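S.,

Sequence below, as promised.
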Amino acid sequence: MDKVGIVGYNQVKCYSDANYGRYEMIFEAVRGAIDNAGLKKKDITTVISATNDYYDGRTISNCFTVEVGGGYMADESKVEMDGAHAMLYGLMRILSGNHKLAVIWGGSMPSCYPYHSARLYETDPTWERPNAYVNDITSSGFQMRAYMEKYGLSKEDIAKVAVKNKKNAAKNPLALEESQNPNISISDVLEAEIYADPVTELMVAPPCDSVAAVLLAPERQAVKITDKPVWITGVGWNQETYYLGERDLSQSTSMEHAAKAAYDMAGISNPRNDLDVAELFEVCAHEELIFTEALGLVEKGKGPQLNTEINGDFPINPSGGALGGNPPCATGLIRIIEAVKQIRGEAGQYQVGDVKRAVASGQIGMCAQNNILYVLEGEN
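The prediction came back faster than expected:
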């Protein structure tokens, strides 16, 4: 199979309220990615956006973003999922041989719409939606409690993840300012307002405004564009059943299957030794632990025992992860960008030493119903 490389990227800083036009934000992200690669608008052959009609409040919402997203006079389409899923679509378009430069962008502005009300449409329309007992907020509590009770873990185990990621976010200038806290403590997390028992507000990835963009190119073009292409050597995705009651929320079966497919494609047999860093889309702190186990980095129930600090045994979310800012439709794409930064040595204060191979994930659905995982590698 031909190699496909990431040759450019850009992310708009996360804001709780960006206070400027969404179309300006999209233009800033895409134009910045093109500039990052030293290219021009005319080089674009296809554009894939990650947006959501429910978030935008209108159907075929991407028709209003064609020009600012670089899609004018180019092949353009949309994925109503996470930006990481949109990148899969762009990857397949490159592999088809029909395109030489794909722009993938994703993002939204939850400061302008009722985020949690929109997510209620993910539930069963006959019973769950009218009663609204099951929603993206309450389900996070179900998931954390199931994980804790299955393996005898404590709230402190989960709070440690939130503390680590908030401190990491303080090193990331693009993270949400409200999530940057170098002095946060475990007691701060545990004593925060209840989100959905036992989840507290500081354990949750805060929805925020941002847009991110990446550029993909086939090997022949990629090596001409940059001397630091990051190759997509593996990808896997999987979706679990629709109903929460039919799932074991103490684990992530979809991530396990996604990881197996990505590892097999990339030739990874021992992820703990073969990988150097992970950027994972965690909606809540406990999901990082669940994903750590699903990726085969530790045994199930042992997630809290792994040192995942920037200088730890296996760094996870050195950028702060989604707990540092969670712009719907962009969060997974940002995880990919952060993994690219690590491989290219461009992560600044949160750079992990000697990164050659990384994984990055995206997700959609309640309790990470659908997961997608990429294995990314540098030139060496």
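The chain has a mean pLDDT of 96.

Coffee later?
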